[in-house]
Structures are given as structure tokens and as C-alpha cells.
């Protein structure tokens, strides 16, 4: 039986560096082109009728990169918000952030908060920016939040933690589980992305580098998804 449109699509936007290198450009030009691909994707997603998209923009492991590249990525984010936020809001897109706020430069964090606040009532499409995001950290953090709430309410810490209780504390809450996980640029690994939420995700790998990802690339992924038989452990 054919599945419907995925209610939550998650994308590991990989290959910006390779895109730039293949054109003899500095890596940051790849990230810039990647940000244009994000903007393009929003319009296609609205056209298709997707409701929730999570984008892996910066991982908790990406701090290992040279400071010049990290600075360039956060500057791009700031410019993206400055240039595109009004348009995003006009299209009724809601912006969400998943990840730890801790190490994000304060200017960027203020920009993200501004985008979240401005778009919080929008309901056409949620774009969940996973920035300073790590799946393991998210789960540990959620567990810690459950324990903290229990101790505040004087509930025993030894009582079993339910799936719902933990899910309510994930950065991504209240987004539904990931139905379709896309990774661009050929690597076939999860790289610490949405580990909990992707428990039953269909995983689609493409060689296309993120800056080249366009309408046709998304259609190919959605077509592939349509033909999956999802079983969730049943028959
Ligand atoms: C993904 O592209 C974007 C980020 C991790 C910020 P990369 O920068 O990882 O590109 P490659 O993998 O080096 O080509
Ligand atoms: C994953 O890509 C993180 C993002 C796309 C933001 P990486 O390029 O950092 O992943 P690895 O290091 O190849 O696993
Ligand atoms: Mg990469």
C-alpha cells in the first residue's frame, strides 16, 4: 500500500564543502550556496504541501572545524535571517530551533529567537533548524529534564520513564516522528541526527550535493518514499 506524504521530513544537508572544492571555491561559498538551497526548498515544500521539515544545519560535532569556517556559517545564518525572515513570515512558515543554545554566538541566538517569536502563529509549514544539535545530547538532556521536573514535584526518581514523558522533553517536541530522512552527498551515516525521532524513518541517500538539491531532487525522494512499505515491526 502506498504511504501518504511524509508528515515530517528530516534532511542532513551534506556536501557544501565538496561542492565548493569541486569549483575551486573556498568552502564558505559552498555554505552560501547551501543557504540558497534551503530557501528554494521552502517554496517547493509549500507547493507540495509538506508540513514539517527538520534541517541539520550545525551539529554538536561541527565545533571541531576551523574557527574561520564556523564564523562563516554563523554569519551566513545571520544574513539569511536578515534577508529572508520577512518573506518567510509572509509565506506563513513557522521557524523552530532544535539544539543546545549554549555555544551559539549571542547575536545569532537573538536572531533565531526573533524569527521564532515573529513566526510562532504560522501554520503553513514548520522549518525546524537543527543548530548546535546532537541526538545523544538531546536524549540525555530530555532525561535530565524529566528527572528535574520529578524532583520539583517530589515524584520518585525511580518510577519508570515513559516514552511520552521523554518525548515531551526533546528539542523537537511537539513535532511528529521522522517519516523520511534524506542525506545528501553520498555518505551513508546518521552523524548523530534525530536518533530518537528516526526510529522508524525511511532513509534516503542521494549523491547530489546539498547546494545542487532542487525541486526535482525532492520529488525523487518523495516518489521513492511513496513506494516504501512501512511495517513498524508488524507484518
Ligand atoms: C554540510 O556540508 C554543512 C555543515 C556541516 C555545516 P559540509 O561542510 O559537511 O560539506 P562536506 O561534507 O565537507 O562536503
Ligand atoms: C552532518 O554533516 C552535519 C550537518 C549536515 C550539519 P557532517 O559533514 O558534519 O557529518 P560527518 O562528519 O561527515 O559525519
Ligand atoms: Mg560533510
Task: Give a structural overview.
The structure is a single chain. The protein has a 6-stranded parallel sheet with strand order 3-4-2-1-5-6, with helices on both faces. The chain is α/β, with parallel strands linked by helices and 235 residues long. Helix 1 packs across helix 2 (27-48), helix 2 (27-48) runs parallel beside helix 3 and helix 3 packs parallel to helix 4 (106-119). The protein has helices at 16-22, 27-48, 67-90, 106-119, 135-152, 163-167, 215-226, and strands at 9-12, 52-59, 93-98, 125-133, 180-183, 202-205. The mean pLDDT is 97. It is globular. It is built from 7 helices and 6 strands. One 3-methylbut-3-enyl trihydrogen diphosphate binds next to helix 1.
Number of strands: 6
Order of helices and strands: EHHEHEHEHHEEH
**Structural class of the secondary structure composition?**
alpha/beta
The helix tally amounts to: 7
Strand order of the largest sheet: 3-4-2-1-5-6
Strand content: 5-15%
Q: Using the alpha-carbon principal axes, give the shape.
A: globular
- Ends distance: 13 Å
- Roughly what percent helix? 40-55%
Mean pLDDT: 97
Over the alpha carbons, how many angstroms does the gyration radius reach? 18 Å
Biggest sheet overview: 6 strands, parallel
Amino acid at each position: 500500500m502506498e504511504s501518504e506524504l511524509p508528515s515530517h521530513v528530516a534532511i542532513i544537508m551534506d556536501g557544501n564543502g565538496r561542492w565548493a572544492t569541486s569549483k575551486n571555491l573556498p568552502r564558505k561559498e559552498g555554505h552560501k550556496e547551501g543557504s540558497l538551497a534551503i530557501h528554494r526548498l521552502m517554496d517547493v515544500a509549500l507547493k507540495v504541501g509538506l508540513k514539517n521539515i527538520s534541517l541539520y544545519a550545525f551539529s554538536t560535532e561541527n565545533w571541531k572545524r576551523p574557527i574561520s569556517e564556523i564564523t562563516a556559517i554563523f554569519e551566513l545564518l545571520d544574513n539569511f535571517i536578515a534577508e529572508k525572515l520577512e518573506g518567510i513570515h509572509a509565506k506563513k512558515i513557522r521557524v523552530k530551533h532544535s539544539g543546545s543554545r549554549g555555544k551559539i554566538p549571542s547575536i545569532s541566538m537573538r536572531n533565531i529567537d526573533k524569527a521564532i517569536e515573529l513566526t510562532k502563529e504560522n501554520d503553513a509549514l514548520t522549518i525546524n533548524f537543527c543548530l548546535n544539535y546532537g541526538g545523544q545530547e538531546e536524549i540525555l538532556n530530555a532525561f535530565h529534564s524529566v528527572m528535574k521536573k520529578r524532583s520539583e514535584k517530589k515524584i520518585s526518581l525511580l518510577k519508570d520513564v515513559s516514552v511520552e514523558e521523554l518525548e515531551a522533553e526533546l528539542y523537537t517536541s511537539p513535532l511528529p516522528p521522522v517519516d523520511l530522512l534524506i542525506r545528501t552527498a553520498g555518505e551513508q551515516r546518521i552523524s548523530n541526527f534525530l536518533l530518537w525521532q528516526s526510529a522508524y524513518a525511511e532513509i534516503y541517500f542521494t549523491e547530489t550535493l546539498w547546494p545542487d538539491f532542487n525541486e526535482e531532487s525532492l520529488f525523487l525522494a518523495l516518489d521513492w518514499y511513496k513506494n516504501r512499505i512501512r511495517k513498524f515491526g508488524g507484518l
